[in-house]
Amino acid sequence: MPTAIDHQTAEEAELARLLVETLHLDIPPESIDPVMPLFGDELGLDSIDALELALAISRAYGVEIKSDDARNKEIFASLRSLAGYIAEHRTR
Amino acid sequence: MTSQNWTVGRERGSRFAIRLMIWLTEAFGSPLGRALLYPITLYFLLTCRRARRASRRYLARVLSSRPGTRDVFRHFLSFASVLYERWLIACGREDEFEISLKGVGYLRALVAAKRGALLLGAHFGNFDVLRLIAERECPVPVRMLMFPVELGPFSAALRQRNSQFLRNVIAIGTPESMLAAREAIARGEFVAMLADRSPDERRMLRVPFLGGFASFPIGPMKLAAILDAPVLLCFAIRTEPGRYEVRFEPFADRLFLRPASRATDLEERVAYFAQCLEAVCRTYPFNWFNFHDIWDDGPSAPKAPVHPDRRTRGRPGAALADRELGSGELVSR
What we know:
The complex is a heterodimer.
Chain A: H1 10-22, H2 47-61, H3 72-75, H4 79-89
Chain B: H1 11-28, H2 30-47, H3 49-62, H4 69-90, E1 98-102, H5 104-112, E2 117-121, H6 127-137, E3 142-146, H7 153-161, E4 169-171, H8 177-186, E5 190-194, E6 204-209, E7 212-217, H9 219-227, E8 231-240, E9 243-252, H10 262-283, H11 329-332
Parallel strand pairs in B: 1-9, 2-5, 2-8, 3-4, 3-5
Antiparallel strand pairs in B: 6-7, 8-9
C-alpha cells in the first residue's frame, strides 16, 4: 500500500468512519486518502453507494444532497470535498 | 467470459438492414418487414458463432429436449422480431399490437395509495411494451434506470424517430443516478430496472439458475432495500408476432436486510429473483435474450469467495461507469 497519503482532519476521519460503516467496506477508515477519488478504481464506489452514503449523511449531519445539484460531481469527488460540503451545510 | 460482444464488426451491416427495414415497412407495411426478418435472422445465425453457441447452451438447459438448429433459429428470430417491434412502437404503430394484462391490479393499487415502487424486469420479451402499458395504466411517470452502455445505436435510432422515447431514462453510473431514483419514488413515481445483467462483474453473485450457477447483479436488491419501497416483477412476454402478455407480480412489499445477516439476506433475494426468472424462462424459453454463456459450474468453480457486498480496496478493474459490456444494442436488449 502506498504510505504517502494526506493526513485526515478530525472531520474527515469521522466521515471516513461513517463511510466505511455505511458501505460495509473491509478497510480501516484511516487508510482512506482524503484527496483520493471516491468513485473510480481505487475505492470503487458506485451510484448505489452514493445513495446509501447520502442517506447516512442526511441522518448524521442533517445535510440533504439532491440529485439535481450541479455540484454533485465536486461534492462526491473525494472525502475532503464531501467533508467540506458537510461542514458548510450541517445542521447538527 | 461474458463481456464479449457478438455484434462488433457487424454493426454497419445491421445498420443498413435496419434502414432498409424501416424504408420497406413505411412503403409496404409491417407484414413485409416481418417477412424480411427471416433472411436477416439467417444471416446472423450463420455469422454469429459465439451467440449461436450461447443460445444453444441456454436452450439445452431450458427446453425439455435437445435443441436443434431450428430452435436456435427461433431464438434469434424472436430477438430480431422484438427489436423490430420496438421500432414499430417508436413509430406509434401501437394499434398493430394485441396486449393482454395480468396483475395490473398491483400497479393500480400502488398508484391509488400514491406509493412509488421499484419495477424489476429482465432482458426478457419487450421492455418497451412494458413501458407502454405501465405508462398507460399509471398516471405517474415510469423512469428507467439504464446503464449508458445499454443506450446503443439502436436506441439512438428509436429516439431519432420518436423524441419522447427515452425521455424518462435515468443513466446509471453517476453519484446522483440513484438519488434521482429515490426522489422519483418519494414523489410516488415508478422506477424500473433490468435485474438480470450488469456490466460490472464484481457486483454480481453466483446463484442457482436453470440447473447450474450463473451470476446475477446484486445492485437491484441493494437498491430495493435502501429505497424501502414495494418491488414488483414485470415481464412483457411475446407470445406471438405482435401479441404480448404483460405481467406484474409482487416481489417484495419491503425488502429488508437484517444487519446481522445482510450478506446472506442479499444473496437470498438475488437467488429468489433468479428463480422467478427461471420460471418464466421455462414457460417462454424464446423470450429471454441472453447470447452469452453465463453458466460457470464446472467442478472446480468455487462459489464467490469474497462477497461482493464486502469490498476491499484496490481491486483490479475499472469503475462502473467505465466498464463496457459492448457497444451494441443487440446485446443489451
